[in-house]
Amino acid sequence: MTDVHQTKFGNGGEPHQQPLGADDVLTTNHGVPVSDNQNSLKAGKRGPTLLEDFVLREKIFHFDHERIPERIVHARGSGAHGVFEATDDISDLSRAAVFTKGEKTEVFVRFSTVTGGAGSVDTPRDVRGFAVKFYTREGNWDLVGNNIPVFFIQDAIKFPDLIHSVKMEADRAYPQAATAHDTFWDWASLMPETTHMLMWAMSDRVLPRSFRMMEGFGVHTFRLVNAEGQSSFVKFHWKPRLGLQSTIWDEANKLQAADNDFQRRDLWEAIDTGAFPQWDLGIQVFDQAFAEAQPYDVLDATKLIPEEDVPVRVIGTLTLNRNPDNFFAETEQVAFLPTNIVPGIDFTNDPLLQGRLFSYLDTQKSRLGTTNFHQIPINAPRCPFANFQRDGLMQTQVPKGRANYEPNSLAEHGEEGGPRASMERGFVTTNAATGADEEGDKLRVRAELFADHYSQARLFYRSQTESEQAHIASAYVFELSKVGLLDKVPVRMVANLRNVDEDLARRVADGLGIDLPEPTPAARPTIDMAPSNALSIHKNMKPLLEGRAVGILIADGTDADALAKLVAAIEAEKGKAVIVAPKIGTTLSDGSKRKADGQLAGTPSQIFDAVAILVNEEGCASLLKQGPAIQFVMDAFGHLKAIGMTGAARPLLEKAGVEPDDGVVDIDHAFLNAAAKRFYDREPDVRLLA
Ligand code: HDE
Prior knowledge:
Mean pLDDT: 95
Shape: globular
CATH topology of the domain at 77-375: Catalase HpII,  Chain A, domain 1
Number of helices: 19
CATH class of the domain at 77-375: Mainly Beta
Distance between the termini: 71 Å
Radius of gyration: 28 Å
CATH architecture of the domain at 77-375: Beta Barrel
Helix content: 25-40%
CATH superfamily of the domain at 77-375: Catalase core domain
Structural class: alpha+beta
Low-confidence stretches: 1-16
Bound molecules: CIS-heme D hydroxychlorin gamma-spirolactone 17R, 18S
Largest sheet: 10 strands, antiparallel
């Protein structure tokens, strides 16, 4: 008899099968042992296949149905399991069990791009999703956020238009995973409320080096509710322990060519090698009086609250420590729902959030095919769940007894009567004013302050370093240069930008070769807010080698001792040392053979954070004849990375056009320090930016 090991997946989950060993017998889905998995059943050796072959039919039938609809947005994603630990007592603010100091809660996190299909690339210019499912002891809480704290639109009713315009164009089905095309910019140029988010989307925020080095945001204003029912407003933030790090545009483009799966691989390998990614969960808490005193509306998802005005208080730590066992069963089938909320946390009237509360439940039904999707192990709460909902497609539970309605008096007759609602333990919607002056009136309008579309875009732009501002201006020029037939679109965009910052508008107009148009009439005057350091990537980077990869280019004759020392020094700082060579088998100075991790031709420097050229004269002479070696150095320099070198490597650096600066150093201690940084000051010497 086949020994099918069955395990329980948490309390609410269903049994699932573990892979068996070679001693176990292969069976059909119905448990019938299979004698031959290589040949279908035929009438004679060369005859037709028989309909009777239930083994073949079941196998092909299952295969034919292996795919489900991909997500409408955020189709490409990577997931990981982990734990959230609450580190601060906030019981005065929230009664949520997940925030009890010391409480550890299992989580599943999925990072994603928004625009591309499931098989698209990891590194386009695109917003990243940052969705966290907390399996708390009082039910699942899903914080379905992004790596940007604001959004393109203020009201959910615009979402289908946004997504239709940004996805590949409806007739030609391209471009894949890119905003740089007619329909997106046509729509955006007619929607001034996108201006703030576009500023972020043109910045390097959308080119994260690694999921491990990006922030996450709940975006909307939510509520925290304490045991007395008192509520405060809250914004949620995820702060990466490794600090912020983004690539630059040329690097991101080349990364795409080097490795489609760059970020997925990075996440998997980090967890696999025990370098568990971590984020702190922070909250910005404020009250109604603060909300009313601001020049923006806290219910408007195109606005943020500067961290200088309301500091972020750290209340817990997220650690990702386990890769999925199965991509489809977990990462693909995980269903995030902003409606998954727990006692102690609540919604606000943000009209974007309110629309999301409908959309996600609805989409899961069409993606997963059944209202019973909550029974899939990755979605099932880890705490018990009990109600009177019954039946439906793919019901996998077997409820006992007659109690499928409430109220009932079955218990009085000795039968199980089922669960009952509880005011004390149950989720109670906050009893707060709706926020509308004309309470109860049905109106298709937005509150007045929603009409300020430019002040926070200006705040963002003016909070950036010079180099970051140049990247934003250049991104606008590139993106708008891809708008082909619609010549009024770039003009409309620049007219919008004039309300943000004159210098930015002028740079973009100049880059596009168009005259500066009149500013778009603004519904409200743009105000100057104090710049916020928290909005800059460069001001929030950490000079750490931890989590970063150093590519060491070697060749025949490389000093064995120096190589061993360099690798050890990098690893001692928790960096990753990756050896690259023209041939996988390289002979070192002591005659030993060293297997390289990557062949030079397919391992370009953009996949590293810094490079070292560790060669002797003979090795350098051989590299001088190889295009990929010159490109390796040229790109590392152009992508503003540290280059460590031996004296013998100088001719290669010269051939690659490297002008020595602070980031070009000998391979010694100085290199380890340099390798933990980027050299943005170098940029004006290597490329012309708008
Ligand atoms: Fe989503 N969004 N969204 N979104 N979203 C989806 O749900 C939607 C919005 C976000 O890894 C879909 O399960 C509407 C803001 C993430 O599985 C869908 C609106 C933010 C993910 C959907 C928004 C997000 C999604 C597609 C405007 C940041 C991926 C598949 C009202 C706070 C979750 C799915 C994962 C996915 C609808 C706006 C984040 C169609 C209608 C704002 C991270 O339901």
